[in-house]
Amino acid sequence: MSAPVAHAHHAPQGWIRKYVFSLDHKVIGIQYYFLGLFSVFLGMSLSLLMRFHMVNPNVSVSWFATLWPKAAAGGVMTPELYLSLMTMHGTIMVFFVLTTVPQSGFGNYILPIQIGAEDMAFPVLNMMSFWTTFIALVVMVAAFFVQGGAPLSGWTAYPPLSGAGSLTGPGEGMGQNLWIISIAIFCGASLMGAINFIATTVDLRCKGMTMMRLPLTCWTWLVTAILGLLGFAVLLSAGVLLLLDRTLGTSFFLPAGMMISDTIITAHKGGSPLLWQHLFWFFGHPEVYIAILPGMGVTSQVLSTFARKPIFGYKAMVYAILSIGFLGFLVWGHHMFMSGMNPYSAMAFSILTMCIGVPSAIKTFNWVGTLWNGKIHFDTAMMFALGFVSLFVTGGVSGIFLGQPALDLYFHDTYFVVGHFHMIMGVAAIFGMFAGTFYWFPKATGRLMNETLGKIHFYFTFIGVYAIFTPMHYLGLAGNPRRYSAFTDVEYLAGLIPVHQFMSWAAYITAAAQIIFVINLFWSMKKGAQASANPWNATTLEWTVPSPPPFDNFAGVHPVVNHGPYEYSVPGAPKDFIMQTDPPGVPSEH
Amino acid sequence: MLLAPVIWVLTIIISYFFVAKTWWFPPPISAHGIAYDAQFMRTLVVVGIIFILAQFALGWAIVKFRSDGGRAAYSHGNNQLETLWTSATALLFIGLVVMGTKIWASVHFDEAPPDAIPIEVTSKQFAWSFRYPGPDGKFGRTDLKLVNDSAGNPLGLDDKDPASKDDIVSASLKVPVGKPILLKMHSRDVIHNFFVRELRLKQDIVPGMEIPLHFQADTIGLYEVPCSELCGLGHFQMRTTMQVMSEADFQQWMQQQQAQK
Questions:
Q1: For the whole model, what pTM was predicted?
Q2: Which residues contact A429 (CB under 8 A, 6 or more apart)?
Q3: Which residue of chain A is at minimal alpha-carbon distance from B9?
Q4: What is this model's ipTM?
Q5: Which terminus has fewer CB within 10 Å in chain A: N or C?
């Protein structure tokens, strides 16, 4: 070994190794981001079609017939087409947006730099994990184009609806097979990613970066990776079993004595539909935290930066993240209060569910505590972080109703649930992504996003998502079941159609406003104002390197960390922030 | 800055519709329903206070602590406050669950009274069947091979079994008022869900399982039963009704059904 001199690693030359099959975590992070951006627009388009159909179930639209000659013959969407749009909306949003962007997109780009590493621990595995995700997306979208179309069993794919083949409905043939295969591939990709994130965080922290000096973003990415490692392994197994039931005639989830549309099923006996629900939700509940934890991390980071104050209760935040991760594996049964499982277990799941509300409440208190006595700057990143807190509160409190099995006796599978999870796991998580985009865009591009467009987009989106998703709670109170393609047959639903019309219009307008964001994103890449290396006067390691950072992040220099992650407004310090790498002499508590 | 009034106005609008009850539960028709509503209101008050306080505090912080060029107060938090709000929320949340336990227990832990009228529920894509055992009090044998909807035998009742002869099968549910009812629920194909808003009751029906559900309806009337678990393309049309009748009307209906067999 030669003497330890700083030597920079250089990027590979050639377009393909640089931008397509890149090993650079920053390029892979951006690839994930754009995969998510494509997916979120696809998923959002599907939701607009759904919202249109629900309030216009019999209206003919000529281009529907062009898109779906069979499922929308004559331009009128069939109920089965509605259900396949719904299935694909949920699946694409949960897996290819909410799982992919906050963790694999932002985490990939930022985590190694924030902990002072040159790259992820396993760059080749990282590249494979992205391209495996890409294949999963291709297979998922292919389900639209096979005989019978995409599956109609929802993103939860409960058997026997999803397990007994095309007898149960169109889309339950090849479409459902492709759905399962895509999810299995996705699980593989997520497992690779999870291992990489854990190894990187544990092993590659630079000198002085103790666990209790990690930015909260890194804590959330680490815990999310652990959730992914344990959760996706179970979903992968469950998916394989479901595929075996469908193709090889096994009976993991299918009981004896079934008769589906006049056909007596003799090929299956002894399986349990509830087994799938247990396996699915053992993954599915932690998945909620996979979607939201990184958003919590970004929100903490952004609130502290723009309030110019240390995060309130850093240790409490870390323990809250850890307990959310731990308890997240003990509450899956609250999705199954009405499922026919042992009603005594509902009590245990209910108490544990309320327990997980406690660290969530702690985080909210600490965010408000961080703002208290701060000096808040209202850049767009901060607006979205503040919006996140508001939506997190609104989406969180409805969980106090749903977590009680007694109250779930009415609310289960109504729009109250749809409103709850869209608020918290859908839009709150997406606000985390918007905050992250505005916050780290200058790091990745060397340019700032446009603030005026950013604020206009923020207000449209913030008011828009409230207008779309709060009325769902009222619909739930009135007993409106979810996953109905039309409100024509159950009589009491007729009176609720005006509420649905309001929500549909709110959805069209809010979706249109997202074009402002896309314009801002692409325009600012080319024309945005030049950003300095540290435009927000922030403290963490990514702000010590040029924008965009060099191939190996620190140009061969090994950073040394001397301070905690959120040293803002330290009395006696020359500036109102102390960077983590500033020399130790500067006054600081950590 | 504008964000604070936006948050406040949204909070007021959202809260208004919960207070005005513009879209609301239909009135309950059972003792369980009344207990349910009380627990809902308790939760609503607690949740409402948390929701309004949190949103107003957020808005207040936005207005009050905006940058004026000076330095923020330097603080890493306050352990006493952390302990206080951790224990307060834990007590509040778990307290609510404990208060609701009785309601859950009365539905799921308590057995149906021994004199409850048994009714067998069978769900399939996308229809309901309700079977009454008839005067002998016994459900007769059924066989899937005998199922024939057009011949009026949707459950495949086996005529060779004398116990089947007096069984009554109906596409909608009829129950006498003020009498305990015990539903024994089966699904033939996929998972369905039995839901009556006015009873504040909901239960999945799972193939391969018999799931019991007991209740007592105290108000005469006609109530809708919408399927509440995704069951396929006709899910939104899978609707039936529950008619709560006077004892005399119920007996008369039973006799008419017997006579028609």
A1: 0.96
A2: A98, A102, A291, A292, A295
A3: A463
A4: 0.97
A5: N
